[in-house]
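To: structure desk
From: M.T.
Subject: fold request, one chain
Message: Could you run this one when you get a chance? Sequence is below, nothing fancy, just the single chain.
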Amino acid sequence: MNCSVRGGNNGESDYWRKLVVNCSFKTLQFIPSNYSQTITKLILSNNFIALSSADEAALKNYSNLIELHLDGNLLTVLPGKLFEAMSKLEVLDLSHNNISRVEPKALAGLVNLRELDLSYNRLQSLPLHLLDDLKKLSILRLAGNTLREFDISVESISLKVLDLKRNPWNCSCVFLNRIKSITDSKVQIRVSNATCASPEDQSGKGILDNGTSCSSGSSSTTTTLPPPTTQSTTKPTSAQTTTHSVSLAVAANASLVLTGVGPVSGSGVPVVGNTWKFLLGVVAIALTTSMLIVCAVKAPSWYKLLFNYRHQRLRDDDDAGVYSTGRYSSFSLDTEQTETSAHELDHGLDGLDNEEDGYIEDRYIEPGVYEDNR
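Reply: Done. Structure tokens follow.
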């Protein structure tokens, strides 16, 4: 194995304390484990190391390492507690690999790490608490990955350099406010002016430009108001239920603009779905109202026809049975008149009791008046 080994010039002890092993641009497939545990710098750049279980065991032998360079290899995953034995490590270079996944405890134990380079890998996300043990970290390089959200916690570390360029950042207000809070809380930090990939109105703009601030007029956000709470005992009307969803646009002057009736999509465009129900309700109400108006107008006429029909039936029934009883009655609203039936006249008054003098008593002639005229 053709690796260069060099050390200091200030005596034997200093030589071993500053021993540097450089095996870059070789054909190594595994991390060598035959070097002294006292080496402080191990350079394994541009090899074919894929980080097998044997490599993990070999790394635990170098507990005195201050710098470890594994850039330009074939690493794909950083397993948990990989560098736990390297508490003295200050520089870790893992750039230009194929790393797509980092386990949450991959950097555990690196309490003295000052510089971490994860640039130019295939990272899409990072664990939230990945850097919790790295209290002394001052340089973090994440350039050249496929990161869209900055979802790691950096509040507890003393960052001075944060390299975020060449990532397809989604410049939502959450992301922009996060970057702004980092720059505000860490006055001396230097953040690379990475560019936004989405949304479309922010594409190509720098994340530190004033134009990408959420307080600007061009970067308004659209949200959907939640349904009203049901703490009140009063039930909402159908109109209130239909129109409870509106889109809320927050502009630069913090004014609220309510637009649309019905649910809206994330882009502020009304969603077609419940509109037909609203229209059906309007049509049903209109038809019902029209029918009630027609009934109110036509009710007197219909009542008159029904009244006449009932009285016509009454007269028809009287024609069939009243004459057999001997007399019938005709009623009006003001008077009642009794007439002698034709049956009595045709039979010569056979069924009536005659007086002794042969005369018939007329009920409509008062007796007193008749006696006076005689």
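Reply (cont.): The two ends are 171 Å apart (CA to CA). Let me know if you need anything else for the meeting.
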